Amino acid sequence: MTSHAAASSTSRTLAIVLRLGGATLSMFAMLYQLFAIHIPAGYSVVNFFVYFTNLSNIMISVVFVVSAIRLINGRTDPSSTDVAIRGGIVVYIAFVGLVFNTLLTDADLGDLLPWVNGIMHFLLPVLGIVDWILWPPRRRLPLSVVGWWMIWPAFYAIFSVVRGAIDGFYPYPFFNPAASGGYGGVALLCLAMVVGFLVLAFGVRAIGNWLSARRWQDEAEETPEDTVAGLA
């Protein structure tokens, strides 16, 4: 085995460990919070899975598990769709981490356990970003993916406002007209959220394309047969 092949093997192993480890920690933390704290306190299970943090943790965990399994099975060529989905979910989990750790550091966490909070609001966002940087996408992301990535946050905001108006539950106060100065205030806050997502989306795409061009082109020029494959 050449030194480059050995490095590729080490990189593959590290990717598998990071992804499976991150997914395991995230799901354990979420399920522990749900079954040990949330349900015994009489909270709604449905409402538990309406929080953007929980949904984003589930998404990144699925991406981590699927990509790790592909690595284990020797899958070598992720599709453009695979790459686009991964990039979008990196945007969502990064948004969770950035917003919580900059704007909500003094927020009342209620019954949320501190160690669960640390895993879901800090560790998984960091792992998602680190994973994107260490193993950038193998395919170039077109500008159009930014628009596709914005569909989920837009749908989530509309769903949260409409559902809250129907049953009174808002996952976050900025979706609640009573706490945001009416629907005009909600609209302004949602607009600010969209701007934040757009900035992150353009950033994730730019970083992914730049790192992808550098890493995979360099490795292909050295020893094409030894490159770390399947890292969507």
Please give a structural write-up:
The structure is a single chain. By secondary structure, the chain is mostly helical. It has one domain. It has helices at residues 3-38, 45-48, 52-72, 80-103, 114-134, 144-167, 183-222. Helix 1 (3-38) runs antiparallel to helix 5 and helix 4 crosses helix 5. The chain starts with a helix and ends in a 10-residue tail after the last helix. The chain crosses the membrane at residues 16-36, 48-71, 83-103, 115-134, 146-166, 186-207. Keywords: Membrane, Transmembrane, Transmembrane helix. InterPro entries: Pr6Pr-like. This is FAR-17a/AIG1-like protein.
Keywords, please?
single chain; 232 residues; mainly alpha; 7 helices; Pr6Pr-like; membrane; FAR-17a/AIG1-like protein; transmembrane
| Spatial separation of the terminal alpha carbons | 24 Å
Kindly provide the radius of gyration, computed on alpha-carbon positions and rounded to a whole number of angstroms. Answer: 19 Å
Beta-strand share of residues: under 5%
> In DSSP terms, counting alpha (H) and pi (I) runs of 4 or more, how many helices?
7
How many beta strands in the DSSP annotation? 0
Helix and strand pattern: HHHHHHH
Q: What percent of residues adopt helix (DSSP H or I)?
A: over 70%
| Overall pLDDT | 90
Shape: globular
Transmembrane segments: 16-36, 48-71, 83-103, 115-134, 146-166, 186-207
Organism: Agrococcus jejuensis
Keywords: Membrane, Transmembrane, Transmembrane helix
InterPro entries: Pr6Pr-like
